[in-house]
Amino acid sequence: MTPSSDQLEAFLERLHGLDRDLSKLKGAEVRKAETVGEIKTVARDWLRFSEAIRSIGALSNENLSFVDAHLKLLLQGTTARTRSSAYRKKLGPVISSFTDNIVVPMIRFEGSPSQVAARQLTAEFAGKVSAEEQSYIEEAARCLAGRCNRAAIILLWAASMARLHGAIEKLGFNAYNAALDRATQKRGSPFNKVSKTVVASLPELQRCRDFDLIVVGMDLWRYDLQVFEELDRLLGTRNSAAHPGMLRPQALDVQQYASKVSAYVFDVVPA
Amino acid sequence: MYKNGEAALDRILELVAKCPKDLQEKCFEGLLLGYVQLEVGGTKPLSTAAESSQRERPRQDTPATESPIPPTALLRFKNTAKRLNVTVEKLDALFDFSVDPFVVHPVALTGKNNAEKARQVALIAASRSYLASGSWSADWQEVKALCVDYNCYDGGNHAVNLKKGAGAVFKVVEPGKAIELSSDGIKEAEKLLKRLAEGPAE
Prior knowledge:
The complex is a heterodimer of chains A (about 270) and B (about 200). By secondary structure, chain A is mainly α. Helices cover about 75% and strands about 0% of the residues of chain A. Chain A has 2 domains: about 5-110; about 115-265, no CATH class. Chain B has about 200 residues and is mostly helical. Chain B has a two-stranded antiparallel ribbon. The two termini of chain B are about 40 Å apart.
């Protein structure tokens, strides 16, 4: 897992602590098992952090490699009889550059507007979604952070459909089929556009058109035509995002889409 | 109102005549509506029919360049500017819209110390969040990053500095969580926005 800037600041504190302990030895060989153990842990923790930070591309590889190289040498030192001064020589350059090269860039990365937007998107659904739905929301947030706004919209709609499918499974397919029957008996739009596909299993439900589900949803979850129309617009936006065209959603559009999905799907359709 | 209406109408009829017969009615309605909107909207009246077609073309080509504010946030910008009694242009000049989502341009903070400056930064971040999404809350990490940029980030005391504003300008301050503004905080944030939009007193 990627360390936060708070964790990196805490890590720097640990490096300072280790350096203080080493300085007390006044250059003598480090024999205390506790100190050697801490050197090993610090170096290993950093190598894990470094790998995770590299995967998100938040920091310069050069700066990461600099710390990697010094802490690897520190770790290698624990296999031999090493003086505290030798350890401090490797630790010093890391400590003096860590704030500027690691902590500050990470703070800037975390506070960048796209990361803020992604966090706000996730927060919009806090406490409202199941684990399965959450996975789509988190993926949408990652897309938003990576400025893949169309993809974020598609994934938000996928989360909505996961909610609808889950809710239909809970009610039972018979209830869905009965509601579908009632909907197709009604005249006029949108009821006359619903295809009468009877469902008896989840794979069959997954083959149903999203449009049919949101029309039948009026009967199943008692939302009105206005909510249906809002859902239909959201579906339209999702379809536009999924096909070639001139739509260029901005981050704010994605956030607005998320607020509407939250209000018209997750607040309306019970889990 | 409707100065040179006759000339504009002639030009509209001229254009309508060029359309296929079954589309002429719709075309006439559309062009007439466009002309009326131009007049009612306070845009300079069309002087001649020829000029009108020249003027219409660039307007249609570049509707988005008129305001850099994203359409989703435009209404909030307009309402806020009206409430603060500043022009929308002055308010939008505080933000950089070339980045998506938009960010705050560097501004001059007046706080006496790091703590005061950090609280002002939180008010600015909450204002940006309000204008972007309608929520008066500042993202913790955004505040931290802005504090680094404004040179008022005080590692160990950052949370303490912000907590000093809890109950007054902020509802609750919990490290790592969004900082929601209280009603007094919103007033303070608006005051700060107004001051920054108006620029330094001459």
